[in-house]
């Protein structure tokens, strides 16, 4: 991955390709993860999967994917481009050569900076994705509240009010415009604080394990890694990162799914305290099994596609 140039665009292009492939692989389980963390009525992962399939068919698992496919590809491009180029800049500054391998402290610093940088672009993307994934439940809840208020002074039957098949948002652009109109620009960054708590340590436990596993699986320092080794190292790193990030991810998902019309949480601390008091400590590990399972194929696909794309671009 090291070259003589301090800044290279091929890292960004490879990240773009890797990001697109990881979204397609991981979005169905991402929908399950979001429903478990921010939704209601699901007993466990299997029950959630079966419920989504029965009520919404296979397409329910891909709800809200068009926006991540367009945006997370750019997001991963920026993340991997920033990470690799910052590595080279630090190596050039400290050792006089951008090709010099970063030490563990350097790698930790770069990973944390990458996590911090990613929130600026990733928070609005995550918010729109989560609200599109959750909108069936959100609309149903609003309709039931409306039906309850009308039933006390109206003869209108409840079934004429509740319409769970209706969508709150017509698509990602409508979701963005509705959020801006109802909550302002800060509405798009709701949950950004929790995302910082998730992504700064999360990316540290993403890139460092990947680097360590790659070093363990590499036959010798001069040889290239086998694609199978890249796939395994990337998958293990993804599972480790996502499982450890689950508590912060739960808080972030709940804050971002919390629309203005049905605002439940005042902020990060209130969300943590309220969730703990009403559901116990186990709520912060809701979706951990999904994250562990989902993290492996997503990250293995991401790293493998990224590394193979880099090898292809740098073969010319």
Brief summary of the model shown:
The protein is mainly alpha-helical and 316 residues long.
Number of strands: 0
Strand content: under 5%
Q: What's the end-to-end separation, in Å?
A: 15 Å
- Largest sheet report: none
Tally of helical segments: 11
Average pLDDT figure:
83
Helix fraction bin: over 70%
Shape label: globular
Poorly predicted ranges: 139-165
Coarse structural class: mainly alpha
Main location: mitochondrion
InterPro entries: MCP (IPR002067), MCP_dom_sf (IPR023395), MCP_transmembrane (IPR018108), Mitochondrial_Carrier (IPR050567)
Transmembrane segments: 65-83, 104-125
Subcellular location: Mitochondrion inner membrane
Please tell me about this protein's structure.
This protein is mainly α. It is 72% helix and 0% strand. It is globular and about 55 Å long. It starts with 9 loop residues before the first helix and ends with a helix. About 9% of the residues have low confidence. InterPro entries: MCP (IPR002067), MCP_dom_sf (IPR023395), MCP_transmembrane (IPR018108), Mitochondrial_Carrier (IPR050567). Keywords: Membrane, Mitochondrion, Mitochondrion inner membrane, Repeat, Transmembrane, Transmembrane helix, Transport.
What brief labels describe this structure?
316 residues; mainly alpha; 0% strand; globular; mitochondrion inner membrane; Mitochondrial_Carrier; transmembrane helix
Chain-wise SSE layout:
Elements: H1 10-38, H2 45-56, H3 66-95, H4 104-151, H5 172-183, H6 185-188, H7 192-217, H8 227-244, H9 246-257, H10 268-279, H11 288-313
Helix pairs in contact: 1-2, 1-3, 1-11, 3-4, 4-7, 7-8, 7-9, 8-11
């Amino acid at each position: 991955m090291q070259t003589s140039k301090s800044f290279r665009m091929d890292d960004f292009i490879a990240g773009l390709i890797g990001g697109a492939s990881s979204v397609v692989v991981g979005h169905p389980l991402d929908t399950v993860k979001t429903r478990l963390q921010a939704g209601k009525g699901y007993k466990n992962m299997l029950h959630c999967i079966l419920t989504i399939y029965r009520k919404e068919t296979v397409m329910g698992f891909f709800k809200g994917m068009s926006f991540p496919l367009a945006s997370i590809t750019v997001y991963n491009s920026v993340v991997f481009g920033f990470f690799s180029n910052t590595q080279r800049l630090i190596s050039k500054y400290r050792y006089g050569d951008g090709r010099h391998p970063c030490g563990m402290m350097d790698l930790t610093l770069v990973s944390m900076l990458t996590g911090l940088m990613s929130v600026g672009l990733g928070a609005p993307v995550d918010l729109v994705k989560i609200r599109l994934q959750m909108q069936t439940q959100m609309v149903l809840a609003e309709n039931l509240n409306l039906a309850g208020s009308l039933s006390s002074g109206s003869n209108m039957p409840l079934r004429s009010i509740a319409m769970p098949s209706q969508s709150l948002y017509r698509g990602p652009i409508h979701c963005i415009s509705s959020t801006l109109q109802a909550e302002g620009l800060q509405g798009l960054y709701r949950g950004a604080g929790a995302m910082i708590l998730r992504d700064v340590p999360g990316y540290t436990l993403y890139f460092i394990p990947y680097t360590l596993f790659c070093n363990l699986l590499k036959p010798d320092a001069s040889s290239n890694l086998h694609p199978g080794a890249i796939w395994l190292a990337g998958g293990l790193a993804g599972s480790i990162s996502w499982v450890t990030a689950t508590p912060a991810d739960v808080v972030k998902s709940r804050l971002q799914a919390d629309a203005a019309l049905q605002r439940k949480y005042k902020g990060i601390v209130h969300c943590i305290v309220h969730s703990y008091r009403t559901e116990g400590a186990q709520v912060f590990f809701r979706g951990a099994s999904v994250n562990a399972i989902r993290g492996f194929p997503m990250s293995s696909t991401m790293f493998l596609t990224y590394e193979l794309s880099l090898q292809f671009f740098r073969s010319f």
